[in-house]
Amino acid sequence: MIVILTHRQMDFDALASMVAAQKIFPDSFMVVDGKSNPYVQDFIALAKDRLPFLRPKDVDWTRVEKIVLVDTHNLQRAAGIKEEVFDQIPLIVYDHHPYYGSLTDQMHIESIGSCTTLLIEEIRKMAIQLSPFEATLLALGIYDDTGSLLFESTTVRDVKAVAYLLEQGANLGVVAEYLRKPLIEDQKELLQQLLDNGKTKDFQGQPVYISWAEGDEYVGGLALLAHRVGEMEGAETLFLVVQMENRVYLVGRSRGRGLEVNRIVQTFGGAGHARAASATVKNASVDEILKQLDGELERQAHRINRVKDIMSYPVKTVSPEMKLSEVEQILLKYGHTGVPVAQENQLVGIISRRDVDKAIKHGLAHAPVKGFMTKDVVVVDAGSSWEDVQRTMVQHDIGRVPVLEDGKLAGIVSRSDILRIVHGSAVPTEMSLTRHRSLAMREDILHLFEELPERIRSLLGSAQQVADELGYSVFVVGGFVRDILLKVPTQDLDFVIEGDGHAFARALADQLQDVQVVFHDQFGTARLDFSDGSHLDVASSRREDYSSPGALPQVEESRLRDDMFRRDFTINAMAIAINSIHYGELVDYYGGLRDLKQGEIRFLHNLSFIEDPTRILRALRFAGRYGFRLAKETREGLYTALDAGVLQKLSIERFTEEFMHMLSELKFGVMGESMLLMGVLRKWFGAELPWDFTHPKLNQEISPERKLLISLRRMDKSQFEKVQEKLRLPREIKGIAYKYFDVMTGLISLGIAGEPSEASSYSKEKISLRSLDQYLEGIPAILMEVFLWDERFCDSVETYVEAVNGIHQTTDGMTLRQWGVKEGPDIGRILKAVRLAWLEGKIHTGEEEKEFVLSFLKGGLSNRPKGETTCST
């Protein structure tokens, strides 16, 4: 026997979830107890024949084999079940309320708008048909719990579920009828009390509407009343405390920028979402609950949405004496429509781009700012609320407002900052940042952290401790974040500090000990060098500007958002918070996580390749490494940059550095083909060179030197000269490459380097081992490997290697001197003759070798012409 349960005071989402669960478990029974929402009661009264319910007392719990629990994950909230059977019966859960424990295979809990949606998705997978009545009830459940799809908790999945139900015959007219029913008299009286007793209180800058009411009889529909009160009062956060019979009911609602009400309600034993939650407290008074509620709100509310939390800083300012022509360049450089004028950090005016343009058109580019700036500046205080700034912007029709703190210029707030709050695209947090937060993502990241090597986990722990002690916001950024999200091995640690990066580096080094700190004042960075040769980088959040394509960046202090924006691609522009309070939270302003999931390399702005052409190579490197593709606009930007000739403005050293990075990658062949296809190599080397990136070894674990030689194998020495002119190759690599071309030229001269079909026509006998030996004897092992991998040479070289491995020559110079050969070139000639005899199979044993040498000596070596190096046959 299978029973389906839900929470007490059943609403439409709970009812619909039970009906949907019974479609998935057709032999099950729905069990309900207690009072439901009054509208739910009306619906059940009319549809009683279609909704066969059992009461808990009618169930033989000893025969129950499985419990299906819907719209709650707390079995204790289920109606009518005895606690002693909790652990005895297998449980399947479908719920959409926040859950912070560990999930099992039987727990289907996801944060979406309606629990009904979860079950509809199961119904669709199982291809179960719904009647129009069932489809209408399920739609009613979704609409009721999502505020007709208008609540912030509504997801795309809820909307798709409704669309499916409409296809199944759901009647939205019936849905609207039940959702719009007028209040009954008892509800109207209760609503009037709530409106009369309500007032708004301020908790750490957060306005919260709190009201209370009392009644002798239980009145259902308190959730509906909370919705009505919220609409009438326009409250972002509200709590209703209502005493009915011997219980006190606490209901919390939140929207937009309101508090997470479930965290407050949990302290009263309740549960729910961040935007809707409730609790029921027995044997308590309204006054007691109100007092406790005030205390929890004061404790949990955080002062956010102040101007200081959303403003941009530091502020770019100009001095009153600066020339208008210089101001024009600053406005163009930073893309501002205006800039504050300050003297000794005191705001004295503001100058707009429009005024600058007008003055310059009149030939006043040389004039100082002070003659054209607006002195009557509209400002706001750092402690003001964002609503105050919004009103100021609307009233004065301005888009950027300077922020003062203690009378000094502290920052600037723009329309964009306000819009981010109004539309909820980002949540303001400490240190004036807007961060994307996801508890689910945070849990995944913390799990990934646990799988990191002990050394990395220890470093992160030390960084966290130092960050907390200094009061800095610290983030691990860039490649570490990218790779940990991709679940690939990573050792690269880069920290960005909102604060003094050098102070953080010193403090971290003191804690770690046995660490050398190197400071780079020009870039505001520091490097910690460890005794094992590894290192980590520390930087204050900064902004970079490029004076010309390919130039080194000019660095300025900035905030994390700008620091991320200076990076090359979205997948490298993510950060993870290290501080204790936000440990493991992902900061992703530019969609890096999205692009990781979609497998795309995307630059952050259209001038990215123009500013730094090395990003062209990095884009292809990352694409090849991870098997990603270039986003459409990024690919177009790459071609635009190549056509503009920016690649030629790079120094040879910087191009070489990026090229060598590619050679060190596993998928160098893939990267090389991309460079060839997109014209990168043609642009850089100024010629169509016969690069070869098709060999399978180029995408395997071999050394960079071997990969380079393989990619050059279709070239001749003169073509390689063009390559090395545009690459600063290390001396040893250049030397081995020249040797490679010398040997390859010799082998080709023997006639064994045609196409594979041609090469195979040459029998091993046609190319003598003696001929091969003059080019292959004593060459480095790396060259021998490369020739063995080359289908043009592999047969002949393999035969040669086998022959060389069969040489067991024991005769050496000392032996010959003992036999009377004088010191000089004759010794070398004899040893060469012995080696060739072994190579050609004329000698097989040490005894034969001795006989060969003695016979050779008897033949009269001293009378041989100078230069004759082989013995007669």
From TrEMBL:
SMART domains in alphabetical order: CBS
Gene3D superfamilies: 3.10.310.30, Beta Polymerase, domain 2, CBS-domain, cca-adding enzyme, domain 2, inorganic pyrophosphatase (n-terminal core)
UniProt GO MF annotations: metal ion binding; nucleotide binding; nucleotidyltransferase activity; tRNA binding
CBS domain location: 311-369, 373-429
Keywords of this entry: CBS domain, Magnesium, Metal-binding, Nucleotide-binding, Nucleotidyltransferase, RNA-binding, Transferase, tRNA processing, tRNA-binding
SUPFAM superfamilies the UniProt entry points to: CBS-domain pair (SSF54631), DHH phosphoesterases (SSF64182), Nucleotidyltransferase (SSF81301), Poly A polymerase C-terminal region-like (SSF81891)
Cofactor(s) the record lists: Mg(2+)
Gene Ontology annotations of biological process type: tRNA processing
Similarity-based family: Belongs to the tRNA nucleotidyltransferase/poly(A) polymerase family.
Protein name, UniProt field: tRNA nucleotidyltransferase/poly(A) polymerase
Organism of provenance: Desulfitobacterium dehalogenans (strain ATCC 51507 / DSM 9161 / JW/IU-DC1)
